[in-house]
Design a protein that fits this description.
The chain is of the alpha/beta class. It contains ten helices and nine strands.
């Protein structure tokens, strides 16, 4: 299901970043015609910035303790978000904004909480095995166990990322993802595509910025490539990322001898 139908940029007189990016200067309206939209472009073209602006306007949930309104790294995104007008078919409160870099910090924080609560619970039980003081600590540890097993940090980076992703998926949600392929092997990227397909069947919508030709092959996704500062709808086999990767794999020596 396509919950978010379109995005428009309001009239404004701002010229500094992020409004100085060509993709923002040329931006007028973006319509979402499919449940999965994939933004493609070179580094610095603004695909992540646009995605962050959408997330800021929505107020999407982030991993960790900071909200999107408090994260200092998203100050520019909030300024962009204020100038966006979102048109909804059905406004959903489910979903999140996931940046690959946030996963590492989240994993470390969860491991710290688990270790601190385990130590506190042990200390309380040593003082008084029947103390009710232990209940909040035991409950938190139980909930972490239910969500993440023995901990995201004891799994490989990619496995932990997928575990976290799956544990937070809800039907009918809107999921914004910035370069989710970063911690994932090619095989795990296929697993991620499988998860996305299953959630689309449950009325979820995804907007993904990626460099991965594997994720770009997500079935029936709308592919938008940033070309000369404009978002252009593309077929998979016409994407520059796909053609360059295919050409390199067919003859890597042709590229490497020029380095």
């Amino acid at each position: 299901m396509t919950h978010l139908l379109s995005i428009r940029l309001k009239e404004h007189n701002q010229h500094e970043f992020p409004f100085s990016l060509p993709v923002i200067r040329h931006f007028n309206e973006l319509t979402f015609s499919k449940p999965v939209t994939i933004l493609v472009g070179e580094n610095g073209t603004g695909k992540s910035t646009l995605l962050e602006g959408i997330a800021a306007n929505i107020g999407s949930r982030l991993l960790g303790e900071l909200s999107i309104d408090d994260d200092p790294s998203l100050a520019d995104a909030r300024r962009l978000g204020e100038q966006l007008k979102l048109i909804w078919k059905v406004r959903t409160r489910e979903g999140f904004f996931l940046r690959a870099d946030d996963f590492i910090n989240f994993t470390k924080k969860q491991a710290q909480i688990r270790d601190e609560y385990t130590a506190s619970l042990k200390e309380i039980k040593q003082r008084n095995p029947n103390s009710l003081e232990a209940l909040p600590y035991a409950r938190t540890l139980y909930e972490l166990k239910q969500l993440y097993g023995d901990g995201l940090d004891v799994r490989s980076h990619g496995e932990g990322f997928l575990d976290l992703f799956q544990s937070r998926l809800r039907p009918g949600g809107l999921y914004l993802m910035d370069e989710p392929e970063a911690p994932l092997s090619p095989l795990k990227q296929l697993t991620l595509i499988s998860m996305i397909k299953e959630m689309v069947k449950k009325d979820a919508q995804f907007i993904i910025a990626t460099h991965s030709p594997i994720l770009m092959a997500c079935p029936e996704a709308e592919l938008l490539e940033i070309q000369n500062g404009k978002l252009v709808s593309m077929d998979y086999n016409d994407l520059e990322h796909v053609n360059l990767t295919r050409s390199f794999l067919q003859n890597p020596e042709q590229y490497l001898r020029h380095l």
